[in-house]
Amino acid sequence: MASSVLSVATQCVSPNASSVSINETHKGKAKLGGSTLRFSKSSGRISMTVAVNVSRFEGIPMAPPDPILGVSEAFRADTNDVKLNLGVGAYRTEELQPYVLNVVKKAENLMLERGDNKEYLPIEGLAAFNKATAELLLGADNPAIKEQRVATVQGLSGTGSLRLGAALIERYFPGSKVLISAPTWGNHKNIFNDARVPWAEYRYYDPRTVGLDFEGMIEDIKAAPEGTFVLLHGCAHNPTGIDPTPEQWEKIADVIQQKNHIPFFDVAYQGFASGSLDEDATSVRLFVARGMEVLVAQSYSKNLGLYAERIGAMNVISSSSESATRVKSQLKRLARPMYSNPPVHGARIVANVVGTPILFDEWKAEMEMMAGRIKNVRQKLYDSISSKDKSGKDWSFILKQIGMFSYTGLNKNQSDNMTNKWHVYMTKDGRISLAGLSLAKCEYLADAIIDSYHNVS
Ligand code: KET
């Protein structure tokens, strides 16, 4: 469109100086249809630029709203008072307000008192953060840390860290596939697509049992070609809220080890599954204890409530300190042209909280409090639905699921009904964030779910 207007313009007005009058200052402007022609004369030559009102970006189509973050945008636009945002996994208080952890405020005060500067961080991030985050993940006395086999690079939260890991795969394991669970967090597919890493799915959720399809999962991991990366949710699987049992984790590790696959953990909810930071890291630690090489992306968005600080890490646990050093150098090389170096504020908060024993203990207590509030809401929601719904449907899956979410089993039409009729905002896969629910709203939500489940096909 833009180019056709351009060609019309140049045909109508010859660039020859005789057909255009140029004023004394040797600069001029003329209108032609919707376009403005600008002329200038310098050293006897006339140059002409055409400012066309039609955009060069005409060919770029409108992108669809993000399936998760787009829900918050729609929520903000709704003026009805009863509205409820159960879309994004972000912790709210019982008053449904955002929550800044006390330990975070204390760490920030410490930082202010010290007058920390704002110099660039090294490409790999803040050293104190990298140390703290690897220790939090693996346990401070983990042999992999002692033997310097862990390459840790501070990332732009969980997403940025996953993206960095994906870039490493794309560059050094060309053609390798990543196996991801069906279903999974929606952004996983985008991350690997954008990094040009091919992916396939392994079976995970069984709608008949509303539980884990363990046999399907094992079969699919076994069937993948040797050396496949297997993306695993460290704990509190998103969106299903269903985790393997410790025995099942052992069997998953067996198969991955037998097939020479490489496990790639996404740890976005450490502490949110059980309320305990250590307990929620057992899956990762189990693989590392077997001497396996493991990739782990970490996020502090949820467990420290640092959503907007974009703080997380990419860890590569290697079988030798030499290869860990080389891997780290390459992670830095990948990061430099993408974002140069990471932001400092969140890194300092994490380093202070994890590195100061009093703050660390206080964090654990706050973590338990947040996980506890979600458990209470989960129970109340189950109680409300099961006492109101006389159909005999078994809703006990709500209690079996763990973490921030409940995977309700509502389909897209039913989820639409939740939003359009009840002003309950949620993702279209039927996931609701219990972290955005209060005890006071459980009855209302129960009515909405029962109506949507029974009256919408
Ligand atoms: N992994 C998982 C499994 C995950 O659920 C999220 C965020 C992330 C990584 C990345 O979070 P980050 O803030 O980049 O550290 N999930 C919530 C928010 C989002 O979609 O971005 C969500 O599922 O609602």
How would you concisely characterize the structure shown here?
With 457 residues, this protein is of the alpha/beta class.
Characterization of this structure:
- The chain has 457 residues and is of the alpha/beta class.
- It is built from 16 helices and 16 strands.
- The strands form 5 sheets. The chain has a 7-stranded mixed beta sheet with strand order 5-13-12-11-10-6-7, sandwiched between helices. Strands 1-2-3 form a 3-stranded antiparallel beta sheet, with no helix packed on it.
- Helix 4 crosses helix 12 and helix 12 packs across helix 13.
- The N terminus is likely disordered.
- The chain binds ligand KET.
- Ligand KET binds next to helix 6.
Structural class: alpha/beta
- Helical content (DSSP H or I, runs of 4+): 40-55%
Tell me the fraction of residues in β-strands, as a range.
15-25%
Morphology call: globular
Mean pLDDT: 91
- DSSP, total strands: 16
Bound small-molecule species: ligand KET
What are the low-pLDDT stretches, counting only 5+ consecutive residues below 50? 1-26
| Rg (C-alpha, Å) | 27 Å
Helices, by number, come to: 16
Order of strands across the main sheet: 5-13-12-11-10-6-7
Give the termini distance in whole angstroms: 44 Å
Largest sheet: 7 strands, mixed
How do the strands and helices of this protein lay out in sequence?
Layout: H1 2-12, E1 27-32, E2 35-42, E3 45-51, H2 69-77, E4 84-85, H3 102-114, H4 127-138, H5 143-146, E5 150-156, H6 157-172, E6 178-182, H7 187-194, E7 199-203, E8 205-206, E9 211-212, H8 214-223, E10 229-233, H9 246-258, E11 262-267, H10 282-289, E12 294-299, E13 311-317, H11 321-339, H12 345-355, H13 357-388, H14 397-400, E14 405-407, H15 412-420, E15 424-425, E16 431-433, H16 442-455
Parallel strand pairs: 4-15, 6-7, 6-10, 10-11, 11-12
Antiparallel strand pairs: 1-2, 2-3, 5-13, 8-9, 12-13, 14-16
The structure holds ligand KET.
